[in-house]
Amino acid sequence: MKIFIDCTHTAKHTYKNTGIHRVVRELTSELLQISSNCTDIEVVAVMFDGSFMRRVTNLNQQQDDNFTKINKYVDTNKINIKLQALLVKLKNKFINFLYVLNLLDLFDSILGNEKAFLEFEGSIVQPEDIYVIADANWDLPKTYYRFLQLLKRHKVTIVVICYDLIPIKFPEFSSKRFTKAFTKFYSDYSILFDKVLCISKKSAEDYSNAINQGILANNNSQIVQSFRLGGNYHKHDLLLSKQNNSLNENLQKLLNKKYILVVGSLVPHKNIKTIIAAFDLLINSIHDDIYLIFAGNKGWDSETDNLIESNKMYGKLIQILGSVTDAQLDFLYQNCYCLVQASFYEGFGLPVVEALQHCKPVIASNGGSLPEVGGDFCRYFSPTQPTELYEALKELLDSEIYYNSLVDRVRNEYIPFSWQESAEEFLSCLYY
């Protein structure tokens, strides 16, 4: 039996390092490793090419020396990234145009000899095979839907990993264009899903509620379950030691600094406004030697970007590092003072478990799944109350004894969950 892991978006955009891309890379890597030691299953990483799937051989992002070494190259690379994204959009529009005009050979194949079209690397895709939509595939051309229909008619089990339903549940946190594409994907495609595997119990609850409310379709036999994500970086330890000499200038400066770390794209649901307000209160008190570091890309919302860049401490105590590699992120976790996860809502909250894995104090909001993920190892606050975040940070900074007690408790009592365990739990969900 083959388990196809659809990694389309990550394979096409190796320069990105969003939470979803990192989950796709880590989970797929572990599944491939498990598969190599099994005789009854074969895991195959694939991507959708506009009509069918083809094998993916490399999901690794670009390395530091090719990605963030000098500012001039970064600027050039950003232009290339924008050009690549534009070309992908144009290609999808062209495919959609042909789709509307019924000019694609794909549909002739579907209406004719389906088995011939289901050939993958010399063998026919079998009815007992499983196709897992692991990636952010809501912007693929319309032929993707017909492709999944073909698989489903051939009795292939269709599984989707649902990270969250934030654009549906909280459309105010996303751009209108993205909300429309995301909502259309789930409303149209949900009827095809045999299983929906969510990354937290809260996300699974949201999905089930959306079905009950008639927002998403239910094919009656559909199963909604949840599995946990890993938080370890063991595969990158050696890479990190090799890359320390090539860390960019911004990271080198942080070696001797005390900094609060915020991980994730700078988008509205991450609640940057509350973080900035709490930090302003902090530096206006006696704590004017603490840094605030954002590790993540700027988002679509210029208001969020301006909120940070217009602050008087931007470029001084406040810095935006942009996208970072796994090795750089590991370095940031190892050397940070604490992590702040202030999101209004999260489907999981990967930075929380990653910071705890590094034995760092975590101050998190009580939004979405964060209390589920962090358990009683985090200090929680209301995402609408900046003063609560300020007070939690101040308590850490005011008492070294209190800070060290938190670190010791995490080190001695927190039980990390690895990506290998995540992959094993994921596989168990596929079978039951």
Can you put this structure into words, describing what you see?
There is one protein chain. This protein has 432 residues and is α/β, with parallel strands linked by helices. The protein is built from 20 helices and 15 strands. The strands form three sheets. The chain has a seven-stranded mixed beta sheet with strand order 3-2-1-6-7-8-9, with helices on both faces. It has a six-stranded parallel beta sheet with strand order 12-11-10-13-14-15, with helices on both faces. Helix 2 (19-36) packs across helix 20 (419-431) and helix 11 (237-243) crosses helix 15 (326-335). The two termini are 16 Å apart.
Quick synopsis:
The protein has 20 helices and 15 strands. It is of the alpha/beta class. Strand 13, helix 16 and strand 14 (362-365) form a beta-alpha-beta unit.
